[in-house]
Write a sequence for this structure.
């Protein structure tokens, strides 16, 4: 019973049910090869959802992640075109993503601007920078080196590197959030900022660190994205920030901050990933797909919040009958 | 400053004078494009020069604003009127905004036609479309059918379910399907012109229809994503991705073999045809009126419909033989 009250377990069961439903209509969906595909396809969403979750934990939100991803992806593609070696590109995009996140973080920390406003602005600025760099031109598959495109696809023990990156991130951030002072600080800042100040936590600085982490993850994902789809242009991952926030919310991350877990965010992302990958194969009319994936989000969130709702304080206890 | 300005004015004056004397008997045709520096239009200018060389007594003025704005084009048009050109062939940034300026040009006796991107009817004598919806619909099916001698399943991967262009093309494509026996259209899916969604939809098509022989994507984002998905699934040679794409973007896919051939209008032909039409209208060898047929040199003749619009030709097909030549153009 207590196990069923656990949000993550419930969500995992919901995903399982979803997979069974899909398999009933399209058995090939549950073949291991396809499930690996689904996980791999969801990896970018998982990476961004982890970053977003940490930001949301601190009572902020980062709407610029998708634009950050697009900008870092384009920079990676351009550096590749200029002959920069791949390891250097990887380091630089992660650093660039971190810097872009730091811009958000600094504006929130030092100027006290609400994060939704800051990131709404930087979201447009980052896309604008891609335009400035490229004049709207695309970087295409034949302009990228083979090594650049091959890395996310390289199989290690049956899983593509892109999936391994997600798995490593899941492990790393689970440890960070549950076993380090910084991890606890994220929860404290979001749960009760005033109390956090009294315990000696610098609220602004903690939020800044959260933005840098989210940015760095977006930067890394930018490379993976561009290399996987073998194309970079201004509009890649357009609107992806909303999927990322949706994944967090489905995963039970409280939008008001202070509550959530890496496992929740990952499961939320997987939930969306399964829907995204299942809809094209179950033969539902494309005209219904948007409505269905939207409803799934609302249902999941409604379910979550009903679990979450505090029942009214009991003033008069019913007489216990024995 | 003043010395500079004087020097510049003198130079400009001198060049105008020289130009007028040199081209006294030439037909001056201005090719006005959406913006300078765009590969597609540079290629169209190349075609215009080809037409000029063929005609002999034509001087091409290739011009346009530096960014794709209607205001910029209006300035350019006014400058061309002042310069006294004989004909203007324009690809408009806005169909209505440039119409008054072009009307003024027509009042001065200048031949005005639009091509590629049209102008409202009152602002031009005729409009040349690169192709017609019917021709495009037929071409995308033909591209797939040509490489499927024994027939089989094909699927369409479109942009959004509400994209006007794509929906018309798909409608035209389904109309001509009976002409291609054995070609079986099993599904139409929508990738929303997003690389990731199109990729996923292509993956979905491959697993839902194991016998799929071709994916037809009449959108540049879709065709690219689908060929990547086919490459990643290791199904090159088994599934042919085709449709409408740009050579610069598709060069990789054609190289790998995921795409055998694809189509798009040829900008060189378009510039060539527009120049030919402008020349013929200006010389009076043809009239811009519904039903008229205007010669376009090596391409044939354009037949005008009730709105004084004409379609140039089938979209041009690109494959291994010509992709190298075009990938740097647009």
């Amino acid at each position: 019973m207590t196990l069923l009250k656990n949000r993550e377990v419930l969500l995992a069961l919901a995903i399982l049910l979803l997979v069974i439903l899909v398999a009933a209509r399209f058995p090939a969906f549950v073949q291991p090869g396809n499930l690996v595909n689904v996980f791999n396809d969801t990896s970018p969403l998982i990476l961004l959802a982890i970053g977003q979750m940490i930001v949301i934990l601190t009572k902020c939100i980062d709407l610029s992640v998708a634009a950050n991803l697009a900008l870092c992806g384009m920079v990676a593609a351009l550096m590749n075109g200029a002959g920069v070696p791949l390891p250097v590109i990887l380091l630089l995009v992660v650093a660039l993503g971190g810097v872009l996140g730091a811009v958000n973080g600094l504006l929130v920390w030092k100027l006290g601007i609400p994060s939704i406003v800051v990131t709404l602005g930087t979201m447009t600025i980052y896309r604008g920078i891609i335009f400035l760099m490229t004049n709207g031109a695309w970087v295409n598959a034949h302009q990228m080196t083979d090594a650049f495109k091959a890395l996310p696809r390289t199989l290690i023990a049956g899983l593509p590197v892109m999936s391994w990156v997600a798995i490593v991130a899941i492990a790393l951030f689970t440890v960070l959030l549950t076993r380090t002072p910084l991890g606890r600080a994220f929860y404290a800042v979001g749960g009760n900022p005033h109390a956090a100040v009294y315990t000696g936590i610098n609220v602004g600085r903690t939020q800044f660190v959260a933005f840098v982490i989210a940015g760095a993850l977006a930067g890394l994902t930018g490379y993976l994205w561009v290399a996987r789809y073998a194309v970079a242009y201004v509009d890649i991952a357009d609107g992806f920030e909303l999927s990322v926030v949706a994944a967090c919310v489905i995963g039970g991350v409280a939008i008001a901050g202070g509550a959530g877990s890496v496992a929740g965010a990952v499961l939320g992302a997987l939930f969306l990933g399964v829907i995204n990958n299942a809809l094209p194969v179950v033969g539902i009319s494309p005209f219904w797909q948007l409505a269905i994936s939207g409803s799934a989000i609302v249902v999941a969130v409604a379910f979550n919040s009903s679990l979450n709702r505090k029942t009214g304080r009991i003033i008069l206890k019913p007489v216990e009958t024995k | 400053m003043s010395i500079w300005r004087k020097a510049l004015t003198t130079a400009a004056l001198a060049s105008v004078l020289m130009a007028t004397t040199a081209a006294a008997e030439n037909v001056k045709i201005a090719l006005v494009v959406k913006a300078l520096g765009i590969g597609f239009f540079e290629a169209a200018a190349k075609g215009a020069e080809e037409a000029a060389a063929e005609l002999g007594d034509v001087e091409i003025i290739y011009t346009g604003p530096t960014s794709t704005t209607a205001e910029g084009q209006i300035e350019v048009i006014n400058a061309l009127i002042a310069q006294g050109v004989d004909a203007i062939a324009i690809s408009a940034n806005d169909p209505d905004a440039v119409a008054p300026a072009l009307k003024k040009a027509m009042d001065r006796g200048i031949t005005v036609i639009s091509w590629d991107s049209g102008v409202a009817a009152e602002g031009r004598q005729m409009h040349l479309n690169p192709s017609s919806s019917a021709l495009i619909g037929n071409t995308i099916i033909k591209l797939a059918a040509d490489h499927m001698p024994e027939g089989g399943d094909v699927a369409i991967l479109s942009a959004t379910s509400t994209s006007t262009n794509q929906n018309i093309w798909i409608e035209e494509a389904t109309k001509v399907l009976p002409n291609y026996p054995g070609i079986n259209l099993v599904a139409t899916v929508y990738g929303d012109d997003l690389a990731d969604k199109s990729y996923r939809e292509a993956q979905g098509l491959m697993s839902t229809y194991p016998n799929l022989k071709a994916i037809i994507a009449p959108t540049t984002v879709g065709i690219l994503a689908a060929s990547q998905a086919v490459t990643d699934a290791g199904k090159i040679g088994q599934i042919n991705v085709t449709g409408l794409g740009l050579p610069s973007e598709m060069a990789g896919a054609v190289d790998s073999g995921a795409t055998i051939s694809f189509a798009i209008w040829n900008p060189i032909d378009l510039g060539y045809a527009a120049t030919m039409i402008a020349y013929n209208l200006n010389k009076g060898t043809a009239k811009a009126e519904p039903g008229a047929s205007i010669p376009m040199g090596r391409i044939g003749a354009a037949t005008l419909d009730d709105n004084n619009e004409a379609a140039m030709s089938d979209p041009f097909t690109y494959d291994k033989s010509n992709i190298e030549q075009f990938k740097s153009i647009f």
Q: What stands out?
A: Chain B is about 45% helix and 20% strand. The longest strand of chain B covers residues 183-190. The longest helix of chain B spans residues 2-22. Residues 200 and 229 of chain B are 8 Å apart (CA to CA).
